[in-house]
Amino acid sequence: MSKGISAKAEKKQRKAVTSAKVFWIHMITFAFMNVLISYLLVHRMNEGFLPLLLFFVAMFLKFIVNDNGLHNLHKQGYDQKGRWLLAAAVFLGWGISVLTVLPEVVPVLLQAFLAGGVLLNSYQVLEKATTGPLP
Question: What does pTM read for this prediction?
C-alpha cells in the first residue's frame, strides 16, 4: 500500500517540475527584476526614510512570495541554480547603480516598469491561489 502512495507522490512531483526552457525564462525575467530593484534602491525617486521603508517592505514581501513560488514550480533546479542567480542579480543591480550615472528620467521609467511587473506577478499569484480567473 505504501508503494502506491509513493508512486502517486512521485508522479505529482514530476508534474510540478517544469521544463528547462520555462525554468530559464523565469530565472532571466526574475533576475532582471532583481537588478531593477537593487538599482532603484540606490537611485530612489523619493528621498526620506518612509518611502525607503515602504519600498523595502514591498520588495521584501515580493521576494518571499517569488522564492516560494519558484521553489514550488522548479524544485531542485531553483534550489541549486536559481537562488544563486537571483541573489547575484541583486549585486549586479547595485554595481550598475554605483558605476553609472543615467538621466533622471531613467529611474522613473524603471520604477514604473517594476511596479507594473510586481502588479502582474501579484495578480498571477492571486489567480493561482483562487480556483479561477479574477474579475
Answer: 0.74
